Each structure stands twice: as C-alpha cells, then as structure tokens.
TrEMBL record, chain A:
Cofactor: Mg(2+)
Catalytic activity: Exonucleolytic cleavage in the 3'- to 5'-direction to yield nucleoside 5'-phosphates
Keyword list, A-Z: Cytoplasm, Exonuclease, Exosome, Hydrolase, Magnesium, Nuclease, Nucleus, RNA-binding, rRNA processing
Gene Ontology molecular functions: enzyme binding; exoribonuclease II activity; RNA binding
CDD domains, per the entry: PIN_Rrp44-like (cd09862)
GO biological process, one term: nuclear-transcribed mRNA catabolic process
Recorded GO CC terms: cytoplasmic exosome (RNase complex); nuclear exosome (RNase complex)
Claim: Nuclease is one of the keywords in the record: yes
Family affiliation: Belongs to the RNR ribonuclease family.
Protein name per the record: DIS3-like exonuclease 1
Keyword rRNA processing assigned: yes
InterPro entries reported for this sequence: Dis3_CSD2, NA-bd_OB-fold, RNase_II/R, RNase_II/R_CS, RNR_Ribonuclease, Rrp44_CSD1
Gene3D superfamilies registered for this protein in UniProt: 2.40.50.690, 2.40.50.700, 5'-nuclease (3.40.50.1010), Nucleic acid-binding proteins (2.40.50.140)
UniProtKB/TrEMBL annotation, chain B:
UniProt similarity note: Belongs to the RNase PH family.
Coiled coil: none
Cellular component GO terms held in the UniProt record: cytoplasmic exosome (RNase complex); nuclear exosome (RNase complex); nucleolus
Matching PANTHER family: EXOSOME COMPLEX COMPONENT, EXOSOME COMPLEX COMPONENT RRP41
Transmembrane segments: none
Xref: Gene3D superfamilies: GHMP Kinase, N-terminal domain (3.30.230.70)
Organism: Entomortierella parvispora
UniProt keyword list: Cytoplasm, Exosome
Name of protein: Ribosomal RNA-processing protein 41
Keyword Cytoplasm: yes
Length: 1188, 244
C-alpha cells in the first residue's frame, strides 16, 4: 500500500486557519467489479466485497461526473440506464457538500442488483487517483481523477468495453490525445440520449423538465438577494431551519424531538409525529408551524409552551381540497374543541431528511387557461401539498393524471417547486386510475406490465404442449414419493396458483397422519438468479379488485409450481402423526413429489362437509373418495383450533368485499361481502399449524437470522374506542391479554345474537386496535418477543404461499437448509445448464448461504418485505374504494341522461343534480362519532362513509325524512311530498364525540319551512348513538383532481334502534329466527326484511311504474335467494325458519318493495366471477384497516 | 463537518485501510546519543519519541525500594502536536494518568529485581498526535528499554481496537477516535499472549468484546513482528561494526 497525505486548511470559529493533514492509503486491490475482468482469478474473487457486477454484454460502461450526479440524479435512477460506475470522487464530494439525499439515491442505484451498477473506490486505488496541483480548482481536480479512472478501467479491462463519461461541464475537448484514441468518450446527457436512447420519449422529457427545473433554481439564486429583503419570510411565515449541528445537539439533549411527520387524511391542518416513549404523539397545527415539511419527512420538532397545547380535532374533512390548503385560510376551530385530551403541540425547526417520492397529481382547474408556464397541481393523495411546476403547454396536461416530483421548497414560497415527469392518462378513466394507484404505492412499472426480463424468462423451465415438463428421475429419487396418498386442495373457484394441498388419513390405533404440502418454488427459483432478484424486489403478488400482478412468471405460478390435479408436482411437505385428541406425536419435514387428486372449490368442500354425497362439479366416484378425508380433516382441525382458542387466539373481522363484473362493458354488477364458510376456517387452521411448526424448526436452525412473523401486543390506548363502544351497549371488554379479549368478544357475540351488525362492528374495531403484524429476523429481537398476539403462537412464520409471497420462499430455503444440513441449491457462479436452458453467469458476488445466515441482511430483507406488503395492501384498499365509487356512480346515475363517466360533470363538489339522482339507499350502522357528524358503515358493501350534520358553513342541518315519525300522517298530499333531499336547517347539536350525537330542531323554523307538515308529525330532537342502525343514501362527491369520494345522506332511522335490541321488531318478524354464525347472506336477508317491514319515506319518490317493476323483480330476487339458501344451508334447521321468513316476506311485498329492485340485478349463476384470492386467509390479523 | 462515513459499504475506512489493517509503522532506535536507550516510532501520523535513562541512582532517596528498581514515567505532549496549538502543563491529569498506565504496563515485565535500589526513567514525548498515542508510547518505550539493555521478560506490544460502524477495526486514527466509536487499548506479551494492560474509556456492548479483543491481539502480534525486525536489524548492524 502506498501512503500519501492530503492537506487541508480550515478556518475555525476564532478566525484562525488550521492545517489538517490526513493520511490516504492507496491500494492495489480495489476490485473493478466487472464480469469482464481478464485476470484470473478476477479481482472481485480476491477481495471480499458485496456488490453487483458490471455485465458483460453491454455496449459501454457509464461514468457520470459531479455535475451530472448533482442535478440529474433522476435520470440516473431510471431503470433503462445500467452499468454505471459511481466513483468515490463524486460520492465524497456529495457528502462533503451535504447532498445526502442525492448520495442516498446513488447508493440505492448501486445496491439494486438489476441495475448492474457499482461503486468504485477510485480515491484509494493506486492507478486511478490524482493529487491536486497547486492553483487547481476542485472541479478540475475531480475531473482529472475521473479521467484517470476511465483510463484505469480501460487498461485494466484491456480495452474490452468502451467507457463513456457523462458530463454537463466538460466535453470531448478536455481529453488528451491518447485518451481519445483509447476509446474513452465524453458526452453530455443530451448527446448520450440522442445516440443511445433516441426513441425513448420518457427519458427525453425527463431531461427537458430537469433542465427547466435547474434554470428555475439558478434564476432564484440570482434573485434571492433582491427578493429576500422585500418578501422574505414575512408573507408566508416560514422560518429558516436551524443548522444541523444545533438540531443534533438539541435532539441529544432532549430539547427537540425527531421523528417522521405524518399527516392524516381525515384531519386537515394537523400533522403528527411520534416522539419517543414518554412524550407519545406530538401535534403540529397550521402550515406555519409545519414549516415546509411534507408527509413522510424526518423532521425535528420543538415543543411550544404548554399554554398553546391543543387537542387534535376530530372533525371529518369535507373534501380533499381543504386538506391541501392547510393554512390557506386561518381557521380557529381546531383550537377551540377540548373535548378530547390535549396533546403536546410543537413546531418544525428543521428537516433531517426528505422523503419526496414521485406523486400522481392533476392540474388545478382553470389553470390551463392561465398563460405563463407556472401551474399548480393537486396531488391525488390529499396529504401532499399543492406543487408548482413549470410546463410550457398546460393544455396538454389538462384533465390528465400526471406524475410530478418535488424539487425544493424555498422559504418565501407557499408551495413547493417541482417538475413534471410524465403523463399517465385521462383522469377518471379506469386504467388511468389503476395506474395512478400503482405508482402511488411504488409498484414498479415492470411488475404492472407483467414484464419479466428476457434473462429471467430464459431461466424458466420449458413447459409447452410440445415439450411438456416431466419430473426428473434423479430428483424423484431424492424426494419422498407421496403420489399414492389422497391429496387434495381447496381454493376459490377458478384459482390458478394453487400453493397448498392437504392429505389426511387414518393409520390405525386411533392415529391420524396429516400432511400439508406446499408448492416447491425454491427448486425452480435459485437464490440470486434473475427471477429471484426480481421476485425479491416485488416482494409479493399484488391483488387489485379486478386484476393481479404476479411475483413470479406464469409458467411457474400457474403451471409448474402450482399443485394442479392429476399431474406429478414437486412439493415441500410437513407430515404429522397425531392421536385421537389431535396431539402431535411426530413431525416430518422434507421434499416430496405428489399428485393431487382434486382441485376442490370451497363450496364443494363445504357441501361434502354438510353431508352431501355428491356436489356439483365433481363426479360421484371422486366425491366418494374425498368425502371421508374432508370429514376427518374437519374433525381434526376443529380440535386443533379449539386448543389454540383456549390459548387466546382471536377471531376478528375484516370488511372485505368481492366485486362481480358484468361481462359486457366491465361495469360492476354487484358487491358482495365475503361469506365465510366453515371450510375456510379449516384450511386456515391447517396453514397456521404448518406455519407454526416450520417457524420453530427454522428458528432452531438459524438462531440469528430466521425469517419469522410476529404480531406485537396492541397498545392499550388503542383499545379506548373499543371499550367505550362496548360500554355504550352495556358490555365490558377485557383487554389485558389476547385470551381475555377473545373471551370478552365471544361473550358479547353470545349475548347479542340478534344484533349481528353490532358484533361485527365490535370485532372490526378490535381489529383496528391491533398493531401491525410484520416480518422480523430472529436475530433482531429477543426470543420472548416473537409471539404472535392474534394467533396465540410463540413462533410463527409464513411458509404456505411461496408462489405469491417472497418471505415464504426464504423460509423454504431456510427449512431445506435445516433439514439437509447443507445449502439448498448452489448459487450460480458460472454458466450452468439446468433444465435444458442456459443460465447466465452470476449477477452478484454474494454466495448462496450468505443471506440465510446473515441476520443483518435478513433484517433488511424483512423490512423491505414489510414495506412492500404494506404498499400492496394500501393499493388494494385504494382499488376497492375506486370500484365502490364506480359502483355507486353506476347506481345513482340517472339512466336516461348523463355521461358515461363523471368527469364531464360540473367539476367539483356541490351541485348534485338532485332531481336526476336516484337515491341509492342502504342500511348501515353508526360506527364512529365525530364533532361534525358521524361515520356509517354499510355492511352489505363494506363501505364506510361520513354523514355530515354540520355543513362547512357551520350550519347544522338534518334531512326532513329523519324527522318524520313513521306511522304518523304528515298531513301532506302525495304530490306535494318534498324530495328526499330536503333538509331542515338552523338546528343545534350536542355531542360527546365518542358515543352519541343529538340534534335539536327549533320548531319555529321547521314550521315556517314546511307549512304542509303538521308540527306534531315531526320529531323535535333526534339522537344518534354508536351502533344505531340508520338508512342512508350513498352518494358521490365528484372531484376532478381527486378520486370521487363517497359520502352519505341520512334518509331515515331504523325503527328498531329507537328501542332496545332485545324487544320484538314491529312487524312481528322475529330476526332471531336468523340466529346465525354471522353469515352475511343471512344478514342481507334480514336487512331487506326490515326495510320491507317499514313504510319507507324513501320509497315515495318512486313512480308507479317502478313499483310494478319492482314487484316482479322482487319475486325473482326472492327465488335467487332461495336458491342460495338451498346451496349453503341445506341441512340446517334454519331453512325451515328461513322459508317461513320468506313466506312472510312474500306477503309483505305487495305493500312495499325493496328499493334495490329498479336496478337490474343479474342472477348469480350468470355473472362472471373475478376473484379476490384467499391470500388473506389469515385476515385475522392482517386487516387492511390497521393502517389507520 | 457533516456526518462522515467511517466505513464505506465497500469495506474501506476513511483513510483507505481495511478494518484489520495497521497504519504504516516506522521505527528506529538509538536516536538520542545522550540517553541510555531511545526509540522513535511512527504509527501513521502519530509520532512518539521515547528516551530511557537507567538503571541509575534514584533521585529521591525516600522512594527507593531495597530489592528492586522503581520505574518512573514522564509524559510530554508538544504544543504543536495537535491541529491547534495548545500548551499543556506537566501536571495535566490526563498525562499523569497515561504515565501511570505505562508504568503499570512495564512493572511486571521489566526484571526489576536485578536492579535493586535504582531507578529507571522513561521519558515519552509526543511529537504529533493522530490517534493511538498510548499504544505508540508503549511500543516506543519497549524499544527504548531494549535499546538501553534493560532486562525484560518479553516485548510489550500494544494496539488499539474498536468498533467502527459495523465491524471491529484496529489502529484507529484521530477521526475515528473522536467520533462515537468505542476504543480499547491492549498491551500484550506476544510469546505468552498475556495481557498487561487493557484500557477503555467508552462503552462497548459485551457481545462485541470478544471480537474486538481478538482483533487487538492480532494487531499486537503484527506490531511485534515490526518491532522485532527493527531491533534485530540494529543488533546486526552493531554486531557488524564490532566485528572488525
């Protein structure tokens, strides 16, 4: 090693000059990290280093210089650019100039194995660095260093690959003679794009916008001197951030608090950061205090004086626009409500790191008419502020969803500055909205286009009709042959990716042999192969309501890995022998080959369980073969489940729905809530058992780095809402342990057999109070913290779905390693031939067992998977909401007039066509009380939406229909009946913001407004309590810049709720007939029954003709439901009760009808089923609502 | 200065060394003609001069031990040794503490029973300070003692080690020392592996202790090789001169 010294002079605070001398060691062993390295062994084999390698088939290697790295990072981040060499020179320069965000982005690019980019430590490499000459500027010196590096690479690789240097500052003329000859070129970005990426419009556009953004900044810098004195921070009230050293000192001394700032969608004007332990959450109120921090940034907060501490508002926001404009207008209402506890309040004094992502946004309306190039765009996500971008032609952007990025937020500007990246498509079109969802949640483009790179497709085994795949005889010998067992799988109908299959049989002595067989993905996907890396980056298969984005190529996920019936398939099996009481005697893990006898559907299996001998879709012989296994399975799993419940396993709810699509135009025909059958629980229990045993096994083998899944204990304060809600109905919930919680919930359920909605909502609230379950590496926590609270297991992991989750694949590899004692598959280091296809040489230097044994890396993978999982769930939630709003749009649109999609409507909120809108009325339960209204949950569709009692103006209004006391004549003629939307204003409201809200009507104003009503026929006050049932009309608030949002208008009360639930319902129909196990189908019937039973004021606007139509349609409906009831509850006693109920219903129908009927409801067996897969079998703890 | 990366993801420290590498060491003995034994040692940019006088008659009769020699260590830090010029008094607590460390390190190693009623003085002068002064002083003192011909059971080799970001590293320089790393100085007798001094002022997690110590042990062995070479070269030199 050569030793040199660098000398700097620094100016100290005392205005003296200090000379600092640092040693620099120049080495000869810095690896070039290229697969083309001509030395043998290649340099990366001689030194231990973790990095991807530069590829060999590329036409050039890129070396960007500081000017490019500083300003055009985004261009370097684009996936198309690969084989970039980041020199230590520019990385060091970025660090010393405090550009840590850019630094991190570059490091990220180097870490991503698909980009094949490396970091080369040229400053410590003997032939690749230069000493600074006297009178030489830093830029010149750095440039010379880069040239030397390019030279070094050229010589080292013996000229095999040309080197291209990218620079915005220096050009070809700065090269010396011999370099020109040597194949080193210097290009500016424009030249580079023009030569190599001529057809890629996205890159060119990006370059254009970046250049514009830079012009902007430079202009600002110049003008700063002049403007600062005039405008300064006065007009916007923002303060300068404190210097980093002061912030760090403050955090250490606990004067300041550091954390990630989050804005919640429902609370405008308020941001929260989670401080450390004792302080809890800190509120930041107002945009001045937020001081230019954006949701997701890591900020430092200083607390205000205790006298200014504020209670966070529980106001429901009226529209998304008002959240953007947090602080556009002053609003005092947030300070005046002190019903809830006061939380520590603070203001932002500095930002440690920004977390600016690409955001989907829409041009503000009216903006396209503005001349000039600055425009404001509204991001789709309401927590992000409006962004000012510069675009030369705004008309092109009007009504489009576009992707923008934020560049900076100068102190005198009310909005951050950003630039336009690209357009997605017209707003409110289905494909555009779905793309927007995917971009917002970071689901990469390649995943959405289902694109797997050519390289990874080459790795795939061949399975075509001409060359069908057959199991390899050598492989068969190494596996346990279980093809003689009766194995079957139970999945939703039309399921293509079958991960799991079950076998169970009696082996005499009262003992049972039970096996769970999982698709053997790790056999086909080798560690660190291209497919593996791609799957790791994707993390999970993403399920949206109508489509699915796979993690693995179809040839694996739907064919070779999927355990299809009647073919041999490789599997990873867990086999137990158990005694008659389901106590486990032995356990066996290992690789096997199976032949599934049947791909059953849930309904079919349930049919067999219910006692049928033949079910539709399977032939009689098969049914005969399977039935005993299914029955034995159910018996065994029930016992196992009971044991787990005794330990405290929780049974919770998630309100998920399935969408049924019409064949013709992709419109939605119906939304159905999930209908849990017993067979769902059985399969779930089997999977949970397998996961639990595998978790213990891999923990034993990999103490420091096993991939486990844990569910931390819920925070007690989250249970407050649940406890209060239960108390309001007279129940008490014990939350001291999962056992206590489960017991309390069961108790509530048992005592409220007639009020299933209440129980469901209670369970949903319990689900919301839960913490999030996540993947961990066992080395990162002490062993007693691995427990899974919701499932009541000490060790848990994900093992049973490797086709759609990457974590399971890692667990498979670890399990194999534990069983065989060696690493599962050798990773690729040179070209090998497997399965008849040639694999490319290795992409990284890491060896196979590295990841499995290294606790630190496993932690990184675990947190990456957690992130991907969360984003995928959010994307799914967004897509569900999108389709719900689409459904409502369909239903409320007047069929005679109106455009296809709502975008041509009169823009934003307000101005509903009252007359042309058909009320779409459903029953719902009050689920949350807020200060200006309450939330109602409609269980039929799984929609939760707000009902506003207080208008934006502060007026308290209530719909007239709510005030009318049913059964009392109003004294008005039918023709003069007001429209269902009439409201009475000028009321007063009281609430305790937790459990009830009361509205009082001043009778004089009611009298004056509605002369045709007798005063006595109206109520004088209405009270809404938590869990009350109400009737609401589902409506859409249309908006251009945001997705349409659902809100609700009260239509009337549900009579039962005014009395205690225990008493009989008015029409003598005892809902207790339908005492059920929470089947929502029964729920649906009950709702309709109730509606029929009352004289709905909502029915009045419907015309005669619709009534007639309704009656006939209603009869059809009844038959449909009858059919369904037959299918599902053939053997149960309820059926007789049900038909009784139907009889009564038929009688009742002549008088009134179900408001649903005017809309054509396609019968069940005709509609086209697209499914939401059962990835959420473990929905118990993985409800999407935990995010809130 | 903004946060410096002490260990890059490529495995290089801030000056380009790998975690288990020592800095460049130069050493010479017999640099002072007047002292009985002297040595000059450079650990990278840390430069130390050691001078040994003795065994000679004790200065203060009160301190004399009847059966062994006393070892007296004095430290001096030149005011120009750090980045900013700062003068330190001789009675600076820190210096006194370091001096007592060195004394404790050598007491079991020097065969003091051979020199009853005498005093051995070790004077250490720090000329440039760039991290790892204690280790450099101990090493220089060893060489100076050997140069003076004082009987010792073994070399005493010292090395610092610490936990830099994610790995254990040896021979920390000034930048690494002054940032949040925990550092331990270990002085070892290379033949037997016995440790005569282990000094640490910061906090280190007990799980990491083993790795750090073993690395320090390795470092000491490397030091021993270097010091031994210097001494032998000098000895050969002298022998050649004498063998006229």
């Amino acid at each position: 090693m050569l030793r040199t010294e660098t000398v700097h002079f620094r100016k100290t605070n005392k205005n003296t000059v200090v000379k600092r001398v640092h040693e620099v060691y120049l080495r000869k062993d810095i690896p070039c990290l290229s697969t083309l390295c001509p030395w043998s062994p290649p340099c990366h084999a001689r030194v231990k280093v973790e990095s991807s390698l530069l590829s060999e088939e590329t036409p050039y290697y890129l070396i960007p210089d500081y000017s490019v790295a500083l300003r055009y990072v985004e261009l370097l981040e684009q996936e198309e650019l690969t084989n970039i060499i980041f020199t230590e020179t520019i990385l060091q320069r970025l660090q010393s100039e405090d550009k840590s965000r850019t630094y991190k982005s570059l490091r990220q690019v180097a870490k991503d194995p698909r980009r094949r980019s490396v970091v080369f430590s040229n400053e410590h490499c003997e032939g690749a660095t230069v000493l600074r000459e006297p009178e030489e500027s830093i830029e010149q010196r750095d440039w010379r260093a880069l040239l030397k590096t390019a030279d070094w690479y050229h010589q080292h690789l013996q000229g095999r690959v040309p080197i291209i240097m990218l620079s915005e500052q220096f050009g070809q003329k700065n090269l010396r003679e011999e370099q020109l000859k040597a194949g080193v070129r210097v290009m500016s970005l424009k030249e580079y794009l023009n030569e190599f990426w001529k057809d890629n419009a996205v890159l060119h556009e990006l370059l254009g916008s970046l250049k514009e953004a830079i012009l902007e900044e430079d202009l600002e810098m110049q003008n700063k001197g002049g403007i600062a004195t005039k405008k300064g921070s006065g007009s916007t009230g923002f303060q300068e951030y404190k210097p980093l050293s002061e912030l760090e000192a403050g955090v250490k001394s606990e004067r300041f608090f550091q954390g990630v700032m989050k804005v919640r969608a429902n609370h405008r004007d308020q941001a929260f950061i989670r401080g450390d332990g004792n302080i809890g959450e800190i509120v930041i109120v107002g945009s001045e205090h937020r001081n230019r921090a954006v949701h997701g940034d890591m900020v430092v907060v200083e607390l205000l004086n205790k006298s200014s501490w504020v209670a966070p508002s529980t106001h429901i926001s009226y529209d998304p626009e008002e959240i953007h404009a947090a602080g556009d207008e002053e609003d005092e209402s947030s300070n005046t409500h002190r019903f809830k506890e006061i939380k520590p309040t603070g203001r932002v004094v500095g930002v440690i790191s920004r977390n600016w992502q690409p955001y989907v946004a829409t041009l503000q309306e009216g903006s396209e008419k503005d001349s000039g190039s600055f425009h404001l765009v509204l991001p789709l996500n309401p927590v992000i502020p409006k962004i000012r971008i510069r675009h030369h032609d705004a008309k092109v952007l009007a009504n489009q969803r576009i992707v923008v990025r934020i560049d900076s937020w100068p102190i005198h500007s009310q909005y951050p500055n950003g630039h336009y990246v690209r357009s997605i498509g017209p707003a409110h079109e289905l494909d555009t909205e779905i793309s927007a969802i995917l971009i917002e949640h970071g689901i990469s483009v390649s995943q959405t286009t289902q694109g797997f790179s050519e390289g990874s497709l080459k790795e795939m085994p061949i399975n075509t009709p001409e060359h069908p795949w057959r199991p390899d005889p050598a492989e068969l010998k190494a596996r346990r042959d279980l093809r003689n067992l009766t194995i079957f799988s139970i999945d939703p109908p039309n399921c293509q990716d079958i991960d799991d299959a079950i076998s169970i049989r009696d082996i005499g002595n009262g003992q049972v042999e039970f096996g769970v067989h999982i698709a053997d993905v790790s056999h086909f996907v080798h560690e660190n192969s291209l497919t593996d890396l791609e799957a790791r980056a994707r993390g999970t298969t993403v399920y949206l309501s109508d489509r699915r984005f796979d993690m693995l190529p179809k040839v694996l996920s739907e064919q070779l890995c999927s355990l299809r019936h009647h073919v041999d398939r490789y599997a990873m099996s867990v086999m137990w022998t158990m005694d008659a009481e389901a106590n486990v005697l032995t356990t066996w893990f290992g690789r096997s080959v199976i032949r599934s006898a049947c791909e059953m559907e849930y309904e079919q299996a349930q049919g067999l369980l219910n006692g049928k001998d033949v079910v539709p879709g399977l032939d009689a012989a098969l049914c005969k073969k399977l039935k005993p296994s299914v029955v034995l399975l159910a018996k065994t799993m029930r016992k196992i489940r009971a044991k787990r419940m005794m330990n405290g396993g929780l049974e919770l709810e998630s309100s998920e729905v399935k969408f049924k699509f019409k064949e013709e135009d992709g419109g939605i025909s119906d939304i159905l809530p999930k209908q849990p059958l017993e067979v769902h629980q059985i399969i779930e229990e089997a999977m949970v058992m397998a996961n639990g045993y595998v978790a213990k096994k891999i923990y034993d083998g990999f103490r420091e780095s096993a991939m486990l899944r844990h569910h931390p204990l819920p925070i007690d304060s989250h249970f407050k809402m649940l406890r209060k809600a239960a108390e309001s109905r007279g129940f008490s919930i014990e939350t001291s342990s999962n056992l206590a919680l489960a017991a309390s919930l069961r108790d509530c359920a048992a005592k409220s057999q007639d009020d299933i909605e209440f129980v469901r909502l209670l369970k949903t609230m319990a689900t919301m109070a839960m913490s999030e379950a996540s993947y961990i590496s066992s080395g990162s926590k002490p062993v007693n913290e691995y427990t899974h609270y919701g499932l009541a297991l000490d060790f848990y992991t994900h093992f049973t779905s490797p086709i759609r989750r990457y974590a399971d694949l890692v667990v498979h590899r670890q399990l194999m390693s534990c069983i065989s004692g060696t690493s599962p598959q050798p990773s690729l280091n040179a070209a090998t031939v497997v399965d008849g296809s040639v694999h490319l040489s290795s992409t990284t230097t890491a060896s196979s067992s590295d990841l499995l044994k290294n606790g630190l890396k496993m932690e990184q993978v675990a947190s990456h998977l957690n992130y991907k999982n969360r984003e995928s769930k959010l994307a799914q939630k967004d897509s569900t909401e999108l389709f719900q709003t689409l459904y409502i749009l369909q239903k409320t649109r007047n069929s005679s007039s109106g455009p296809k999609d709502g975008s041509k409507d009169a823009g934003k909120e307000g101005a509903d066509d009252d007359e042309s809108e058909i009320p779409f009325v459903e029953t719902g339960i009050v689920s949350e009380i807020r200060e200006n209204g309450f939330f109602v949950f409609v269980p039929r569709f799984g929609i939760k939406g707000p009902v506003y009692l207080k208008e934006k103006s502060g007026e308290i209004t209530i719909p007239l229909s709510v005030l009318e006391i049913p059964g009392v004549a109003t004294g008005a003629k039918t023709s003069l009946k007001p429209s269902p939307w009439t409201t009475v204003s000028g009321c007063e409201m009281e609430t305790d913001q937790m459990t009830e809200i009361t509205v009082k009507i001043p009778l004089q104003s009611a009298a004056s407004a509605l002369p045709e009503h007798r005063l006595g026929s109206l109520r004088s006050k209405v009270q809404f309590r938590l869990f009350d049932k109400v009737k609401v009309a589902l409506r859409l608030k249309k908006s251009l810049a945001h997705r349409h949002s659902i809100y609700m208008t009260l239509m009337g009360l549900d009579e039962e709720s005014t009395q205690r639930p225990a008493s009989a319902s008015p029409v003598g129909l005892n809902p207790r007939i339908f005492s059920s196990k929470g089947k929502s189908l029964v729920q649906m019937k009950k709702d309709q029954v109730k509606k029929i039973a009352e004289n709905d004021p909502a029915l009045a606007p419907l015309s005669e003709q619709q009534l007639i139509q309704g009656i006939t349609a209603g009869q059809e409906k009844a038959q449909q439901l009858q059919k369904e009831a037959d299918l599902q509850k053939a053997a149960e006693a309820e059926e007789t009760a049900g038909s009784k109920g139907f009889g009564k219903k038929k009688r009742g129908r002549n008088a009134s009808l179900e408001p649903i009927d005017p809309y054509q409801q396609t019968p069940l067996d005709v509609s086209f089923y697209r499914l939401l897969d059962t990835f959420d079998r473990l929905r118990i703890v993985e409800s999407s609502q935990t995010i809130e | 200065m903004s946060r410096v990366e002490l260990l890059s993801p490529e495995g290089l420290r801030i000056d380009g060394r790998r975690p288990a590498e020592l800095r460049k060491i130069t050493s010479t003995t017999a640099v002072l003609s007047q002292a009985d034994g002297s040595a000059y040692l450079e650990h990278g940019n840390t430069k130390v001069l050691a001078a040994v006088y003795g065994p000679r008659e004790a200065r203060h009769r009160a301190l004399v031990l009847h059966d062994r020699a006393i070892i007296n260590v004095e430290f001096n830090v030149a005011p120009f040794s750090t980045g900013e010029r700062r003068r330190r008094t001789k009675n600076d607590k820190r210096l006194l503490e370091m001096a007592s460390f060195v004394k404790q390190t050598f007491e079991p190693v020097v065969v003091t029973t051979l020199y009853a009623r005498s005093q051995i003085d070790i004077y250490l002068q720090i000329i440039q300070h760039d991290g790892g002064t204690l280790q450099a002083c101990i090493n220089a003192a060893t060489m100076a003692l050997i140069d003076a011909g004082i009987a010792m059971t073994d070399y005493v080799c010292a090395c610092t080690a610490g936990w830099v970001e994610r790995e254990a590293a040896i021979d920390l320089n000034h930048i690494e020392e002054s940032s949040d790393t925990s550092e331990v100085t270990v002085a070892m007798l290379p033949k037997s592996g016995k440790i005569t001094l282990m000094q640490m002022e910061s906090r280190l997690h007990v799980d990491k202790l083993e790795e750090v110590l073993s690395l320090a042990g390795e470092g000491c062995k490397q030091m021993h090789v270097v010091m031994d070479k210097t001494i032998r070269d000098r000895a050969e030199d002298l022998a050649a001169k004498m063998a006229v």
